[in-house]
Every structure is written in structure tokens, then in C-alpha cells.
Specification:
The structure is a homohexamer. Chain A is built from 6 helices and no strands. By secondary structure, chain A is mainly α. Chain A is elongated, with a radius of gyration of 16 Å. Chains A, B, C, D, E, F: It is an enzyme of class 1 (oxidoreductase). Chains A, B, C, D, E, F: Keywords: Oxidoreductase. Chains A, B, C, D, E, F: Its EC number is 1.15.1.1.
Chain lengths: 134, 134, 134, 134, 134, 134
């Protein structure tokens, strides 16, 4: 994957805007979720109160970004036809964004909770890339 | 690349935070630059004044994000040893961020200018992945 | 309504946060949508190019806030039980947020489009208050 | 009040923008202040350090929004004639925004302090609605 | 002044935060107002529609910052004793922030309007430095 | 300096925008750095956990602003000719922004660390004003 990055960076298209520009990628949400997991691991390994407070401040921001990137995909990329073809897509997004919030990554410092979020994002990513190939 | 995404989403790690969480990826800047290029193409293809104004509003935001993601890599990821090994790295980042600003992607609606930015980001990405493999 | 405001402002509870604080209200989204409608009306009544550009800049921001406030309700307030009881709730939110985006309030300066958004928000508000009374 | 909301959501107009769109409502500030009070109550009832840190992070944001919404009303809605008719209006706004800051809601986790802020906002709301009816 | 900057940068203290950190300076608002004036001058000298749209987008942001910096001084720095000593201080701030909004710098591209804002900020700055020396 | 402020506020020009408006000043970064130092001093003098958490939240924001203002100077103000004339300028900015981040002001509550940042900003300011006089 890293190799393909170096060889074909030209095919990495992922950003979003509401023009729309038509550029979307679940990687944006996953990236922030990976950050949350890394923060959780560092939090558990470091009991310094200042470090831990900073970790919670930053994790709150990354988790908000996860929610935002997922909401953008759900509202702006996916169309009615997609929701018909994937009946559980609404629920997947609702569960994924809940997993990034108070009952998930925001409210927990357990890397296992971040993994649940990552897995949910991967389920969405799988559907996303299927629809792109369609 | 898209295939590897589907097969190995687990290896897409890219976000950033200043804890630091240690998660970085030039893809974040590239994603926004791809969006700028797409906006430029839609701008040139659509003369509706409302559409064009919205395109400029959104392009301004995406370009600011390109600058931010590149600045973060330059300050937070790259260390003195990297700058010694890659003497042109400072200049590359300075040129790339300038290409995202008034003299580049912000000040132009020409997709060719966005391509210059994308190529500069790819030069940085090549060095980034070399240092990650080191 | 305005009267009840003066007499019982103590009962106006609506903000949101992701602690969670438990305070939610569809009025936050509606407020921004009303602003969009007012902007559209002023836009149509004023052909000054500077005024129109400012109107589009501000409308873009208000529409983004509508999307944000609706996403927060969809993810943070509504629970699985609600989605079971109101099978069309997911679709209502998806349509409402789409109506605030490029295919709706962001991409149009027609007050009729803002009215469609307001009506969709009212459908959501009706369900919201039913669940609060339950 | 909640009933009137359900029956007449059409009359809930409150957002703001600086076009101006002419849509204002003290409810926006009150909503955030209600959130602060709820956060204070949850903070006092929960001694978990992670929860408490998150509560302080979020309260800081809500309090900033209270200040912003009040500043907007003071500068953008109220006109010289209003300040002449209500000689204490400047002081009311200055005290209310101070009550949302370091010497008030930001610097305290006591719900009683949030109540002081809410009462001050209600004094402003009373004047606001009088001027709207004039 | 520029000389004193070079010779005594150590004495330039001006930022703000709501801890409070006790660091305030009207220069922050003036800086943004100077930017607005420069934007107005460039706007009048350049009829390119893309440039003009970008100028309006950026001016909107700088003007919002002027309002914010002034609101912070009015609420967080100035105390009741100051308002007693300077009876016109409330009005000065209200007029200055209005001059940064729709009826002033935001709604105009005339550098003369930006000058009115700058002069009002200077009146506030004069009082500010008097209180600092008191 | 404070005196010259009162007497010649007309010469305080410092804001930035990416039009470009041509208005820059290292004071913006220094102001935020002074705020960080003041926060560190108050943090060390106050062991109240709520106060300390708020101090860390606010310091994180001020430090981010220091990085932003420095990045803007580095990318938008300084030109290739400047980097040729001042070979250490890239390194100065890289070190200064690192000093505002996790390895510096963000990751520490020691005022001595804030002083290191302030001194680095002063080195940049000295060069900045030399280039303005050139």
C-alpha cells in the first residue's frame, strides 16, 4: 500500500467539498480514527496529568473530525440508489458516528473502542469503493 | 491503489495531531489539492456567477487546508536529521505552500496551477515515505 | 409563541454538546434555515454584485450550520429505539441535510428551496418533540 | 412552550448573520447557557477525572458561544435608539458576557453561576422581545 | 515605532485568552482593520472578478476578527470602574464593532470606511493605554 | 514603546491575509507567545485542578495560533531572495514552530520554555524588520 502510494500518488483522490467537487474518500475519517487509537495507546502508557489532559483535548478534536468526515460521506456522497442497494448503510453511519462520540471514542481512552470505530469505518469504506467501481 | 484500499484499509494511517500521536500522511494535503483541481475544472466549465462565487469560496478553504497539512508535516513530522539528508526539503515545503496560496491555487482557477501544486506535494510525499522506510 | 418566550424563557432549552449534556433542540437548525431564507429574499431583491457575493459567502456558512445541527441530532440525540419507531427518520435526516447542501440551500438562492428545507426540519422537529414527551 | 413549539415551529426565527439577514433571537445564547448548567450538574455528580476534563473542555466551548451570541445581539441587533430607551442595556450585556467568561461560567463548575448567567440572559431577552413588538 | 519594534520587541505584549492570562492589546483589532483598508485599496484598483470575490471573502474574515478582538477587550479587559471613568466607552465599543460589520467595513469596499473604523479603534486604544498606565 | 503606541498608533500595521493584503507583523505570533508565558506562570502558581485544566486548554489554542502566524510569515511574506540572504531563516522558522508545539510550549508548562519561543520569535522579527527597511 505504501509502495503503491510512492508509485501512483496520482491516483490518491479523497478530499471533499460541497461545490460539490466530487472528491471523496473514507480515508479522511479513518486517518482521524487511527490518530484516536494512537492517542489512547499513549494515554494508557503515560500517567503524567498534563500529558493526559492534552491527550483528551486533542482526542476530542480528532473524534469531532471523524464524525464530520463520516457525516459528509453520508449526506453528500451517498445517493438514494445507494441506500436502496445497501439497506444497512444508514445504520452503519449512525453507529459509526455514535462510536466517535460520547458513547465511543470521545468518552473512552480504551484503544479497543477506537478499534470498534475503525472496523465500522472499514465496513463503510468497503461499500464506498464498491459503489465507486459500479 | 483503489484495490489495495479495499483489500488493506487497515494500513491506511495518516492523521495528525500535536500530542504527538505520530500519525502523519502527505495524503491529507494531496486530497485537498485534488479537490482544488476538481473545483478549477468545474469552474472553467460553468459560467454561472453564483456557481463561480461558491467555487471560489470553497477553493479558498481547501487551499488553506493544503497549507495547514503541509505546515504540520514540515514542523511536526520532519526532524533536523531529515533536513540534513534532504537539503532542498525546506525549499520544497516553502514552494508547495506558496503554490497553495495567493500566487498559486488560491489566486488562480487554472487546473494547471493545481497540477503544479500536486506535483510538488508528490515530491514531498516521495521523501516522506523514504524517511518512513528508513 | 413570542409571548410564551417573554413569559417562560426559563423553558427554552436547546443547545448541544457531546459530553453529552442532554440538551438538544431542532430550533438550532431551524434558526439557521430561517436565516438562509432571509438571505435568499435579500439576494433576489438586491442586484449589487458586492452585496450578492457577501450573501453567498454568509449563506454558505449558515447552510453548513444547518447540516451540523441536524447531524448532531441524528447521531447524538436519536437512539436505535427511535429509528425503529420512526422507520423514515434516517431518510428524513438524509434528505434534510442534502437540502442544506449543494443540491439545496447552498446551491440555490431561491427562497422556495429554503422553504423545502424548513418544512423538512419541521417534520424532524415534530418527531423530536414526540419522543421528548414519550 | 414546548407545545407551542410543536404547534407553531413556523414562527421560531432566531439565527443571525451579518449580511444582515435580520434574524436574531436571544434563544441562541440561552441554549448554550442551559448546556453549561447541565454540564456543571453532571460535573458535580461525576468525579471521574476523564469525564471531568471533557466537561471542562466542552463547557469552555459552550461559554465562548454564549459570549459570541450575546456580542452579536449587542452590536448587530440593538440600535442607538434602543440604548437610549434602555440606559442599562450596555451594562446588562457587559455583565452577561462577563458572567460567561473567566469570572463566571468558564471559571466555575457551580450550576448557581450558570443560573446567574441564565437570569441575565433572560433580562436581555425581555428587552429584546419588547423592542421586536414596538 | 518600527525602530522601537526592532530595539524593544520584548515589550510587545498583546494577546488575549480567557484564563485570563492578563495579556491584552488593541493592536490585535487594529492589525485586522489595517488589513481591511489594504484589501479595500486593492479591490478598488483591480476589476478582475475572481480577485474581487476573493477580496470580499477575505475582508469578511478580517472584519469578523476586528469585531472579536474588540468584544474581548470590552468584556474581558475593561472593568466597571473603567466604564464609570469613561462614560462613553460602551458607546465607543458599540460604534467600533458596528463599523466593522454590515453597516461598515463588511458592507463597504471604501477605504474611507476602513479609516473610520481605524480612528474609532485608536480612540479605544488611547483609553486602553491610559488605564494601563493608571 | 507603549508611549509610541499612544502617540503613533497610525503606524501599527500587522495583520495578514492571503489576498495578499501585504500587511504582516511578527507581533501577532509574539502576542500569543506572551500569552503562553503568562499562562505558564499562572499555572505554576495555582494548583486548583479545574484552573489547571482550563490553562492547558487555552494554552493549546494560543500555541496553535503562534504556529499559524509564524507559518504565514514563512510562506506568505518571505520570498526566495530573503532565504538566500538569510540562509538560516528556514531553520529559524522550523525551530520556532517546533518550540510552539508538542516539544515546546504545548508540551510544557515551564515559562522558561515559553521564553525560548519568545527569543526565537524575536530573532525572526529582527530579520523581518530588516527586510522591511531594505
Amino acid at each position: 500500500m505504501r509502495l503503491s502510494r510512492i508509485l501512483k500518488p496520482r491516483f490518491v483522490v479523497s478530499a471533499h467539498c460541497d461545490l460539490p467537487c466530487g472528491v471523496y474518500d473514507p480515508a479522511q475519517a479513518r486517518i482521524e480514527a487511527e490518530s484516536i487509537k494512537a492517542i489512547d495507546e499513549k494515554y494508557q502508557a503515560n500517567t503524567d496529568p498534563e500529558f493526559r489532559t492534552r491527550a483528551l483535548i486533542i482526542k476530542e478534536q480528532r473524534a469531532e473530525l471523524v464524525k464530520h468526515h463520516l457525516w459528509v460521506l453520508w449526506t453528500d456522497y451517498f445517493k438514494p440508489a445507494h441506500f436502496e442497494k445497501y439497506p444497512n448503510l444508514h445504520t452503519l453511519f449512525n453507529e459509526a458516528t455514535k462510536l466517535a462520540g460520547a458513547s465511543g471514542a470521545k468518552g473512552s481512552t480504551d484503544a479497543a473502542k477506537a478499534d470498534e470505530l475503525l472496523q465500522k469505518i472499514d465496513e463503510i469504506a468497503k461499500i464506498f469503493w464498491e459503489t465507486k467501481q459500479a
